[in-house]
Amino acid sequence: MYKDNEKSLLTLVQNHMLDYPDAAVQDIYKLLYQGAMGPGHIMHNPEAACNYLQQEWQSLTAEPQAQLTETVATNGQVIRVHLRPLKALLANPKPLWQAMYNSAHLFIENKALFLEQWQHLRTLIVNNLLPFTIEQFTELDAGAQRDNYPPIHHSARYRSAYRPAYRILLADEFKTLKIIIEDTRSSG
Fold first, then answer.
1. Per the confidence metrics, is the pTM higher than 0.90?
2. How far is 13 from 5, CA to CA, in rounded Å?
3. What SS3 state is found at 134?
4. How many other C-beta atoms can be found within 10 angstroms of the C-beta atom of residue 57?
5. pLDDT at residue 188 is higher than 80
6. Please, what's the largest Cα pairwise distance for the chain?
7. Please, which residues have CB within 8 angstroms of residue 62's CB and are 6 or more apart in sequence?
């Protein structure tokens, strides 16, 4: 990894830890996975993904003051769009669904990048630059390696503390979604 990439990875993870101090190493794995692999895994069954989005959307309360997006990739091209603040801006999730669909079809997954960043995370932990132990990393890594580094869920602690409800998009697709939001708000 080049020095600039090392620094940007450290910055990404440190910023995430500032926003989510209860995050476990499992949550950082998920962050890096999403940044390198994009939204494709949730879209393997588009009909199920659409139904799940509709159900989740209906179950959530709008939170207009909450953070709308956050970066999950060191290059800034992949983001999480949080559903609660988005629900305060959109009456229904159809435009989000289109952005998800487009993102999944445009994004090129890069497992090699994920694995490179994941192993660099190990170095950051060994060098005491992050609040995790090497044992925590090694335990998660062993299970992930056995399963060929799959997508995983957030830790129970993270889910309890932050109630995550978001979708992964390409940043460019979110720009298009913002235009739709602005048009909807100005015409309504």
1. yes
2. 12
3. helix
4. 19
5. no
6. 55
7. 84, 85, 87, 88
